[in-house]
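Hey, I'm writing a tutorial for new members on how sequence and structure tokens pair up, and I'd like a real worked example in the thread rather than a made-up one. If someone can provide the structure for the chain below, I'll link this post from the tutorial.
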Amino acid sequence: MPPDTVARLERVAATEGWDRLVETFMGEVLEVPADEVARIKAAPYWRVWTADAEASLHDLRALSRYRFDAERYRSLRMPVQLLIGTASPHQIYVTDALAAVLPDVRITDLEGQAHEGMTTAPDQFVAAISTFLLD
């Protein structure tokens, strides 16, 4: 999370509020298309996300200071499942970097989903986790 992005989100929160922060984050950072953001805003879980926006901004501040190094995970010997939405921009996540170093990794695509597939497609999410755990 680049510090300048966090600074922009902090300005949005301070001047336009938490609702606009979530909308900006989804559109500009997660690259969720505007029509999908509009659909999500109409869903009941939008209130949950905006209620959690202040805590999420604190998380983003921490992420801006963290330096990810996939090599640190190379020694994990247990099976690992990574989930990625097919509508998610891979370049902003570490899925591919982790998959390159983990010795026992499975990547599961959540078809048609973006960042919040566990919320927007709970059946796909549960099926993916269940299949992994029961395998």
